[in-house]
Amino acid sequence: MSKSKKPWGGRFRESTDQQVEEFTASIHFDKRLFRYDIEGSIAHCRMLARKRIVTAAESKKIIAGLREIGRDMEEGTFSFQADCEDIHMAVEKALIKRVGEAGGKLHTGRSRNDQVSLDVRLYLRSEVRGIRKMLGAFMGTLTAAARRELDTILPGYTHLQRAQPVLLAHYLLAFREMLRRDSERLEECLARINVMPLGSAALAGTGIPVDREYVARLLKFPGISRNSMDAVSDRDFIAEFIFDAALLMMHLSRFCEDLIIWSSDEFGFAEISDAFTTGSSIMPQKKNPDVAELIRGKTGRIYGNLVTLLTVLKALPMTYNRDLQEDKEPLFDTVDTVKASLSVLDAMVKKVRWNRKRMREAATEGYATATDLAECLVKKGVPFREAHGIVGRLVAYAIEKGVLLGDLDLDEMRRFYPAADEGIYRCLDVEHSLRARAGVGGTSRQSVLARLKEIDDEKAS
């Protein structure tokens, strides 16, 4: 006689050890899937009624019970029992208690293996759509800031060394391009999430005459899985999402790194609002960019989540294994972290004050237009490598004298380039440097305006 009270306990003669109960339980984290478990169960029940596997009266009773359980869970009045392993068992146990024997028919033609895959796909489909909306909002914030900063000049950097003058608008739109790619990747990922696995049962499909296409239509899935063994073991779509999220967080982290550096006294390019900074417990003068630092730090967590999942998957035999329970915590943490980071960074950027004067000063300091001077010589017929050498020697001479290139007189210029005339000084002008970069994707005002128009056209279409 079985001593197990589990729904699967028929062949067991002993009760589950309490340590095993606690160790194997996932209800404490997968209960957040309740909306999707109930949504999927209602669709499954409708299909069972359509196929006359349950009666119309039973279907009505089951669906009413499921909706009642859903309302209780939404309102926080549902009592999750410790002996329920997971959200599926919690819902089923409550359903049977509320509607009686009919509730025990709901699981006909399905397994928790295909049920959990369905729940996670429904959950992630919803979350990806929400994250893409948040990405669109942040892209809008960067675009609006770029319009305001069309005339703000700053030094662009390579190797964290001043390189060439650029427009702040061009810089901001560079991050918008990264986010656009992130959104595209998530859209492509969504296509692989949006596949209906229910009907695969434990691994081999079901002998019950279910209608998978009907369930897919009810749940708005454009397609169904084509191999039952793959369907119950597939977690590629979760790994793909976390990878996409890792790239997204990397882009946010890079932006935050610049804000952290630029808000320091050494740079002074930006000031983050008091509302998004914190102070020191000992140094009263401090204003710390903690929000930006935390986003930078949380990026590492997302990388860790990706490695966690890939490690879980890397040596699993076909098909379902309990190891797959370990997919949810890294997934949930990734979703929560990405959403929180996007939300707070979007709000923070709206309140950043850009120090236009200091940026322009930095763009004119040093030798940021040295490349422009070399290009001017090229336009006069000097081979680029020769022009590069001439300007390099000019820069070394100016550094030795402790002056800027524009401070050298014409005679000094001619010591390095005998054909120099007064027009050479125009090549050293910051505005001239920006105007010259008018090609597609360049940093000129003309090019930036053209990109902004493209963005407007994309939104209108």
What is the element layout, followed by pairings?
Blueprint: H1 18-24, H2 27-30, H3 34-50, H4 56-75, H5 87-99, H6 112-148, E1 153-158, E2 161-167, H7 168-193, E3 195-196, H8 212-218, E4 223-224, H9 228-233, H10 236-262, E5 270-271, H11 290-313, H12 328-349, E6 353-354, H13 356-364, H14 370-379, H15 384-401, H16 410-416, H17 430-436, H18 445-460
Parallel strand pairs: 3-4
Antiparallel strand pairs: 1-2, 5-6
Helix pairs in contact: 3-4, 3-6, 3-8, 4-5, 6-7, 6-12, 7-10, 10-11, 10-12, 11-12, 14-15
Please characterize this protein's 3D structure.
This protein is mainly α and 461 residues long. It contains 18 helices and 6 strands. The strands form 3 sheets. The protein has a two-stranded antiparallel ribbon. It has a two-stranded parallel ribbon with strand order 3-4. The protein has a two-stranded antiparallel sheet with strand order 5-6. Strand 3, helix 8 and strand 4 form a beta-alpha-beta unit. It is elongated and about 100 Å long. The model has no long low-confidence stretch (mean pLDDT 95).
Main beta sheet, described?
2 strands, antiparallel
Nearest-integer average pLDDT? 95
Helices, by number, come to 18
H/E element order: HHHHHHEEHEHEHHEHHEHHHHHH
List the uncertain runs. none
Strand content: under 5%
What is the global morphology? elongated
Helix content: 55-70%
Strand order of the largest sheet: 1-2
Q: What distance separates the N and C termini? A: 68 Å
Task: Tell me how many strands there are.
Answer: 6
| Structural category | mainly alpha
Radius of gyration: 31 Å
